[in-house]
Structures are given as C-alpha cells and as structure tokens.
Amino acid sequence: MNILLLFFFGFFFSFVGSITPSMLNMTALKISLEKGRTAVNNYALGVSLVVIPQVIIAVILTKYIAENPTILETLEKFGIVIFILLSYYFYRESKKEKIKVDGIKRKETKPFLTGITLSALNMFSIPFFSGTAIALDAFNLFSFKYVLVLFFTLGSVIGTYYILFLYGKFAKKIQQKTGKLTKDINIILAILTGFVALFSLVKLLF
C-alpha cells in the first residue's frame, strides 16, 4: 500500500467532508469575521489537533464496528445529545447578541481552546473516519499498518485544517455573497446543529 495514497485519501475525505456548512466551519467563519485571520488559524489548529486521536480511535474501532454495529449506534446517540445541547447554546448566544447593550464588554474566548472544545464535542467525527476506513478497506485501498495509519491521520489533519483555513481566508467574500446570512451566524449554527441532531435521530428510529 502506497504511503502517499493513504495520505491523499485522508486529506481528500476530511476536506470534502467539511466543505458543506457545519458547526466547525461556520464557527471558523464567525471567528474570522469577528477576530481576524490569526484567530481563525489558531481555531483551525485547535480543531485539527483533536482530529488526531479521533482518526486513530476510528481506525482502531473500525474492525469492531464492522462486526458490532451497536458501537456506532451508541456513538451516534451520544452525538445526538451533544448536538441538541450545542443547538440550544448557539440559540441562546444569538439572543444575547440581539439584546447586547453598547459599552458592555463581551467575554473573550480563546479561539484555540474553542477549536479544541468544539472538535472534541463533534462525536460524528469518529463514525465519519471509521466509515471512510471501512469503505476504503472494502476496495482494498486501506491498510491497518502503523506507519500507513499515521500518514492517513496526517492527511486527515491537514485536510481539516486547510478547509477551515479557507473558510477563514475567504470569510469576507462569503459574507458579501451571502449578505445578511453571516450576520445571524449563531442562529445558523443553532439550525445546523439542530438539523444534524434531528436527522441522526430519524436515522436511528427508521
């Protein structure tokens, strides 16, 4: 199995999997607009560092998940609860911004720690990378050898960082294209996380 091929797969699937609006990249957009490029790069670094253990755990669990689907189901149930809580949190934040009074200093949050926290709460990351590994293995395009897994992990980390970096870099252009959309970004995050929770719940029930 080619090392560069595993690196490419890790990069490609983590990048493509994060292109569409989600909690992580919309937060990157928000941080870029509010605090600038340096802040969003620190946020992206925080998110990407957590991807390392997530990918490794996903690969380790892949064989077990394939043999025992209840493990994946348990992770999804836990993820639903997390996304419901996050949806409520972002909804409250959107309300706070509307009633904010000028002159009151807003609580500062560190983008790097925000990235670590949100990435750690993103419990769908492990099922995503596990599903990727299972799909690649089905076509004999994956290997569980230590070195190859490390390169797959490295590619996944860089792919995640790069898509968040692009969201931050082009935040103002995205804002111009979407207009009022990015002005209510907390409510967008609330809707996105709520939708993911609802979709996952329906998927488990049916």
Give the topology, please:
Layout: H1 3-17, H2 23-35, H3 37-67, H4 70-98, H5 111-121, H6 125-138, H7 146-169, H8 171-178, H9 185-205
Helix pairs in contact: 1-7, 2-3, 2-7, 2-9, 3-5, 3-6, 3-7, 4-9
Shape: globular
Number of discrete domains? 1
Instruction: Give the SSE order as H and E letters.
Output: HHHHHHHHH
Gyration radius from CA atoms, angstroms: 18 Å
Number of strands: 0
- How large is the count of helical segments? 9
Mean pLDDT: 81
How would you sum up this structure, described in words?
- It holds the Pfam family LysE.
- This protein has one domain (3-73, 102-178).
- It contains 9 helices and no strands.
- The protein has helices at residues 3-17, 23-35, 37-67, 70-98, 111-121, 125-138, 146-169, 171-178, 185-205.
- The N and C termini lie far apart (38 Å).
Please tag this protein with its features.
single chain; 206 residues; mainly alpha; 81% helix; globular
Brief account:
The chain has 206 residues and is mostly helical. The chain is built from 9 helices and no strands. Helix 2 (23-35) crosses helix 7 and helix 3 (37-67) packs across helix 6.
